[in-house]
Amino acid sequence: MGDQVRRLLLNDGEHLNTTLYRLQKGWKLHFVLGPSLQHLKVKVFCNHPPTTEKKFDRGEYYELPWQSYSKSKCDQSDNYCEVNLHRAGSFQYFFTYNEWQSATKNGSGYFIVDPTLYVGPEKDLLPLDCVCLQTVLAKSLGPYKHWEKRVQVARESGYNVLHFTPIQELGASNSSYSLRDQHALNPGFHHDGNKPTHDQVGEFVEKLNKEWHMLCITDVVWNHTSFDSPWLKKHPECAYNLANSPHLRPAYVLDRILWHFTLDLIDGKWEHKGLTKHINDDNHLHIIRSVLLHDILPQYKLSEFLQTNVDHQVEQFMQLATESTAHDEPDKEKVELVQDPKYQRLKSTVNMDKALAVFNIKRPEASTEEERVDLCCAAFRNHLHGLNAEADNKMREDLGKAVDNVICNVSYHYTQPHGPKLGTISLKHPVVPQYFTHPGEETDVFQEEAAINTDKASFVWAHNGWVMGDDPLRNFAEPGSSVYLRRELIAWGDSVKLRYGDGPKDCPFLWEHMLSYTRETARLFHGVRIDNCHSTQINVAEYMLDEARKVNPDLYVIAELFTQSEYVDNVFVNRLGINSLIREAQSAWDSHEEGRLVYRYGGEPVGSFLQPQIRPMVPSIAHALFMDLTHDNECPVQRRSVYDLFPSAAIVAMACCATGSNRGYDELVPHQIHVVDECRLYPSWNEEVPKGSTELVNQRSGIIAGKRALNYLHQSLGAADFNQVYVDQVDQDIVAITRHCPITHQSIILVARTAFTHPTNPHYTGHVPPLCIPGNLEEIILEGRLVQKKNSSFAKCDNYINGLDNYKLELQEHIQLFGSTMCELSDDGEINSPVQEVDFINFPPGSVIAFRVSLSPSARTAVSFMRSCITQFGFRMRSMSGNLRQNRSMDFQSIANKLTLSDLNRLLYRCDAEERDDGNGYGVYNIPDHGNLVYCGFQGVMSLLAKIRPNNDLGHPLCENLRQGDWLPGYIAKRLMFFKGTKDLGKWLEAVFKPLSQIPRYLIPCYFDAIMVGAYTILLDCAWKKMSNFVHEGSSFVRALALGSVQLCGSVKTSRMPQMSPVHKDLPMSINESTGRKEQCIVSMAAGLPHFSTGVMRCWGRDTFIALRGLLLVTGRFEEARNLILAFAGAIRHGMVPNLLGGGAHARFNARDATWFWLQCIQDYCNMVPEGTDILSMMVSRIFPEDDSEPQPPGFVDKPLVEVIQDVMQRHMQGIEFRERHAGPGLDRNMSDIGFNVKVGVDPNTGFVFGGSEHNCGTWMDKMGESDMAGTRGKPATPRDGSAVEIVGLCKSALRWLVSLYEKGLFPYDSVAKYSNGKPVKVTYKEWNSLIQENFEKHFWIASDVDKSVNKMVNKTGIYKDSVGATQFWADYQLRPNFPIAMVVAPELFTPENAWTAIGIAEKYLLGPVGMKTLDPDDWAYDGDYDNSYDGGDAKKARGFNYHQGPEWVWVIGYFLRAKLHFANMMEDQPEMLQNTIQFIQQTLSRHHVEIEKSPWRGLPELTNKNGTPCKDSCPTQAWSMSCILDALYDVHHVVSAKE
């Protein structure tokens, strides 16, 4: 278990105090940063001691050092802090990204580490799920010398944990939970003058552990003490009394009023009202209500505790008003009553300063000062009367609630059918229980009230109890609570509530007294049950348990909570480190609910997925101690029926958690064994019990033998890892529960027939549906039922707690099916059949049967084979016998190592269109009731499994499809058989999947997933290992982005790359299946999936070369990058790289920018690839040697790349003008005729490349209008003619590079020629470069101080124009995200200060959550929501006209971030600017990490709509989106590395 790791994701502002995380010693906890924190310098603190030598101190936190799973320097997605868990208990963590001394916690939470429990001399491990606990009333064990024989009953009944109620001296009530002296043992343990000591109790506990393999726990009672505790009289400050808690005085007086009302009823003083001491119907309740509200309570004027003495206040006001200056106007502040802190009658006051400000004002109507003061006093008096009236209303409301609660109490105890129906009011059974201990003699209410103004007030103690539906985190006895006054407390009249305060300093004696008691308990016992946990001050319990764990580090802590809220439960569990919460089977109202509780409280579903050892932390529910009966429950014999005890016990025993019971349940005691009233002793164990004996029990008593069998079954299931559970509600009364072991695949199926009501005919079986058992039925572990021996009434023994003796349990254990009296194999069943059907022939109410089922031999063989395969993937698989399997074969790894990245494209991805393009009849797999997978390859399935696996969602349609047939495994393997590169792996998968048909269908999702996860993990690792170190050693985010290279680069038949020159001998080749010839097989790059996946629409020059740097160069796929550069170079015509490639021969040349992105990629290739400049001399096979050439075969005209580059530069300088071939609707049905005319040139005055017209769109913003309804067909939405800013920047970058190459002797040309007046004029690259440099800022910069009134085209200032010389002249001034592209490729063009200003403006107005707005939101044309299906009258958006007019494109955000990084890095005098920028980039890209992880395509979209909302018409994964984000991370990595 030592290699188990849980990863807890930290998110900003997340305080998980109500979330429960359970861990085990020996595990590791990793804190990892969520997206909201990955850009910050986070410090994590935890109070789990870093070493075993360090003691735990709840207030001492340790800063955890950061580590990383990767070597990436560009993001923190793989950073983690580690806690090695070596100590049990409750621990807290928090994190901050400020200085933590500031006490600012930006997030926090808790985690629980379970204790390790051992039994026996060899210290055998006792898992929590093996716990079988029995509660005994310690007082009913009698003298210590008899304990062993009395608790032997628990041992012989199969229990391994004994829970003693408190062993301390009890108070006057003899309640097991009202302790008189926490430091003394119960005198009832004495015998013949022998007084056992605490050490003797400890020795007894140790003996039970060593010899009986039993643990012992006991209660700790911190919340209250008995009213007759001697130490309380010496230290009354330890209780809530009327001296230290005067707010309880009105409640005490009310308590005395009600007590005297009881006395009056007993004395018959209200008989004239028709009310006697005999209460038996609702009419009496009406009279009680009337008498209290109208006759009794008014005379005591309890409102006076809240009210003020009006005359006294007015007198004081008059004196002050006379001596002070009157105000012109009354103050607006409210004058309210200030409650007297001692709660004396009519002693409340008001703030006189406020009163004067409000009421001591000038009175124009007063003729004298004296008259003015009188008027002010009169107004003040009226206000005070109003305040007193409000106080009276408040008290009346509280008293009304109090009377309601009195009536409810009387109703339950005297009139309700399900209540005890006490009948007669008496001193023992008053109208209501007393809330306070009255210290003196009983006189009358007025005299008793007067006594609380003396030192007797310290001895009027508030009783403890619990409040139904109250906030358990609130102390109901503290000021501000009206619980005592409103009579909302269910009081325990024998116990006094203890007043701890906030810490030991507030009540030193009490804290020390209870601390000593706690330590001694922890010394003697293996665990504790926190009594009244939900009402115990949580800070007190926290403190005491911390000290207890210092004595016993593996203390087992249990509790019962009644908060009615799982979240509030978790607060207690988290802060106290509660290991098991008591859950009650008796809370179930029928068998269906009881079965649901079994499923709820533990275990995974049968057939659950194999979970990796390193996995995310998921919230838990509190571990349950599921009890068939607790000592507080009503007797199930009375509440249900005696026939239900055995089947309900069996249902509880099948729960995958701790289980328990209360002594007496197994002995069929037909009444509640009351913790207060019970004075008898438990019977002792004896193998021979004389007939009629009530002081002895044995195996034949009650259901003890059956409970022993069930407890042993429960323990064996927990020990053997039967941790999967399935509950089947067979019918109204019958529940079938399966516990399954994922190691051996054995199952235990228990069927129980409950009897929640007494059966009419206890012997009648009736119709019971047959049970279908998958596998071999090995044995019947047990079968039993309760039968009545004789019809006799129960005689309650006076001395011993005896049970029903007229019932017996008929029980058989470990028998074969033919020996069963309850069931038989059905006529349709066969012994060796894969599924056996069992009929129930004798299964009346109260019956239980449990079957052991194992796999058939063929299924065992199949599972063994699959496990041997799965071990290759690193799973710690066990053999069917439970031993760890050794990894003997690495067949899969050797096959995977031979795969190319092109093969991995086919294995992992391929969208539907790509797969169909192969012509083998395959497309994506369809899952009924779910739909199509997104990919044909592994990722299609894995994206779905990634959602299903963590939640064990076995009901998902994918799992159902796997259970119903072997179609999906067959599909996965067979589609790979058609291709040489993947054929071997397809065969391997086919062989591994074949045994799936031999195993039970419910196991198939589990093993299918394990095979897929293992294979997928290795395949991904193989892909990353074939890439650069930046990727292979990079963060999970970097690697996820790098997979875009595999995802989008592959070979597609209908989108072949142009054939390259035969001089290249290292090109990838494949066999043409139709001709049998070898052909070049150069991978092409899809622009996006699934829309741009096949045919002519797959390969775009612009998209390819925007994406090439990130997807191929950054990832180290240099050969593929080279091939794409040279292949596109071969298709150049008119000096332009194709927009749509069309295999080269059918290329379309209508992109003005594709050529410049191509040139940028050649530059990047030369700079990033070792010996990259070699590409310049490589041969390009020119398909079109001349503009008018027909397509030429490969190698017919070969030119070195440098000549092709020179040709491109020359053609641009001299000007390009042509009409597209095949112009017309056949080429583009949306283009106007004039739009097919292409024109490109260079402005001689500025050096800027220009081109295009208002009729076409030659940049990446290339949306052509399509709507006839809106009148936009043939109209470009964004022509961007003239000189587009990014093209100018790309041109400048190319010129700078060519100048450098020429100077290094790597490029043979230093100039181009242009024609002036028909004569060639030489223009050097250096001159052209300088010309652009000189003119760029002059023409493109819009200064911040521009006067908009002079140039009305200016909308935003402090930016760079989007273009210069556009026909639509306003378009030059539009704010778009294109200038950052120029900043990245040609940063020298920009003045750093101006660049930084423009970047800030772009960030403010254009930056979205995932992409960049393509147009300023303030622009009239802006529309951020793209919907290509809309066709209507709105010309701005019809048929997607706003494609680039607002929707947020992802790829440009990469350039924006790179630009920001570059210029921040230039500001060396402001180093914090770079650090802030890096944090900003990490923060921004953290959203992309989330996006890629949650996308089933595992990609980044082409675009989003406004504010990052998903766009249905966007490609869900786009090449340039993935590439440009990876580019940004790559740049950050290198900047950080350079600074280190």
Question: Would you summarize the structure shown here?
Answer:
This protein is of the alpha+beta class.
**Straight-line N-to-C gap:** 39 Å
> How are strands sequenced across the largest beta sheet?
13-14-17-24-25-26-29-30
> How would you describe the shape?
globular
Low-confidence parts: 884-889
Integer-rounded radius of gyration: 42 Å
The total of beta strands comes to 63
How would you classify the helix and strand content by structural class? Answer: alpha+beta
- Give a short account of the largest sheet: 8 strands, parallel, barrel
Helix percentage: 25-40%
Strand content: 15-25%
Count, helices = 38
So what's the oligomer here?
single chain
Residue-averaged pLDDT = 94
Write structural notes for this entry.
There is one protein chain. The protein is α+β, with helices and mostly antiparallel strands. The chain has 38 helices and 63 strands. Helix 28 (1101-1113) runs antiparallel to helix 29 (1118-1130). The chain starts with a strand and ends with a helix.
What key phrases describe this protein's structure?
single chain; 1540 residues; alpha+beta; 7-stranded mixed β-sheet; globular
List the helices and strands and how they pair.
Blueprint: E1 5-10, E2 15-16, E3 22-24, E4 28-33, E5 43-46, E6 62-63, E7 66-68, E8 79-84, E9 89-96, E10 107-114, E11 118-119, E12 124-125, E13 132-136, H1 147-156, E14 161-164, E15 168-170, E16 179-185, H2 198-212, E17 215-220, E18 224-226, H3 230-234, H4 249-266, H5 282-296, H6 310-323, E19 337-338, E20 349-350, H7 352-359, H8 369-415, E21 436-437, H9 445-451, E22 461-467, E23 489-497, H10 508-524, E24 527-530, H11 538-551, E25 556-559, H12 566-576, E26 580-584, H13 591-600, E27 604-605, E28 614-616, E29 624-627, H14 636-639, H15 645-653, E30 658-662, E31 684-685, E32 696-697, H16 704-719, E33 724-729, E34 734-740, E35 747-753, E36 771-774, E37 776-788, E38 807-815, E39 823-825, E40 835-840, E41 847-854, H17 857-870, H18 891-897, H19 901-908, H20 912-917, E42 926-927, E43 931-932, H21 938-948, H22 957-964, H23 967-974, H24 980-993, H25 1004-1025, H26 1029-1032, H27 1036-1048, E44 1049-1050, E45 1069-1071, E46 1078-1080, E47 1084-1085, E48 1088-1089, H28 1101-1113, H29 1118-1130, H30 1154-1168, E49 1179-1181, E50 1198-1200, ...
Parallel strand pairs: 1-4, 1-28, 2-10, 3-10, 13-14, 13-30, 14-17, 17-24, 24-25, 25-26, 26-29, 27-33, 29-30, 31-32
Antiparallel strand pairs: 4-8, 5-6, 5-9, 7-8, 9-10, 11-12, 15-16, 18-23, 19-20, 21-22, 22-23, 33-34, 34-35, 35-41, 36-40, 37-38, 37-41, 39-40, 42-43, 44-47, 45-46, 48-63, 49-50, 51-52, 52-53, 54-59, 55-56, 57-58, 60-61, 61-62
